[in-house]
Amino acid sequence: MSELAIRTLTGVVMIAVALLASAVGGTIFAVAVAAVATAMYYEWTRIVRDWGLSWKIGGFFYALAPALSLLWVRERDVHGLELLLWVFLVTWSTDIGAYFAGRTFGRAKLAPSISPNKTWAGLCGGVVAAAIVGGAWALMTGLGTLLLMLAPIFAVAAQAGDLFESWMKRRAGVKDSGHWLPGHGGVLDRLDGLVPVAVLTAIAQLLGLT
């Protein structure tokens, strides 16, 4: 099986699990989020094991903040599920758009000293994909037109989160944060973009913007 096929199959399974847990909500969703946050922190501590205590403490909040944000978004009001799915769709479409745009049109490197595979074409592809998919979902579900503007902005934040994790791995001298997910690496490798999107969405909701 090709690497792309393995990556796609694993991605489909992860998406299915995330959607099922999100739809059920309540305790099931909370347990799933807690399990993922624990895995994130475990991988973080392995990466920064020689970097000092402050990095381990920072990793705790790095894993905790998106976990609390996702729980807040899901259970805040009757539109929680729709907004949570918007968070996922923006993150996923950013990743997918960046991957295929980068492979197809990628020439100029975005940050070669941090992540040699990231390109400006990938960045633009991710932003466009998130704007289209996130915007369409916001309009379909009546979440509000403000999310049309937030989708591309949060897509940039998602890719910044990806670059941050790439910088950590490069500094630590590791290729992947873990080996849990065939074709993807570790949990941090898949959720580095979700972290800022989840936190920013929760902040926007707290401020009454969504």
From TrEMBL:
Superkingdom field: Bacteria
Q: How does it sit in the membrane?
A: Multi-pass membrane protein
Please write the reaction equations for the catalytic activity of this protein: a 1,2-diacyl-sn-glycero-3-phosphate + CTP + H(+) = a CDP-1,2-diacyl-sn-glycerol + diphosphate
Q: Which UniProt keywords apply?
A: Cell membrane, Lipid biosynthesis, Lipid metabolism, Membrane, Nucleotidyltransferase, Phospholipid biosynthesis, Phospholipid metabolism, Transferase, Transmembrane, Transmembrane helix
Q: Where in the cell is it found?
A: Cell membrane
**What coarse category fits the chief subcellular location reported for this protein?**
membrane
PROSITE patterns tied to this protein:
CDS (PS01315)
User: Which InterPro entries does the entry mention?
Assistant: PC_trans
Q: Where are the transmembrane segments?
A: 12-41, 53-71, 83-100, 120-140, 146-164
Q: Name one GO molecular function term.
A: nucleotidyltransferase activity
Keyword Hydrolase applies? no
* Pathway assigned to this chain's UniProt record: Phospholipid metabolism; CDP-diacylglycerol biosynthesis; CDP-diacylglycerol from sn-glycerol 3-phosphate: step 3/3; Lipid metabolism
Top class in the EC scheme: transferase
| EC nos | 2.7.7.41
Q: Which PANTHER family match?
A: PHOSPHATIDATE CYTIDYLYLTRANSFERASE
Q: Which family does it belong to?
A: Belongs to the CDS family.
Descriptive protein name: Phosphatidate cytidylyltransferase
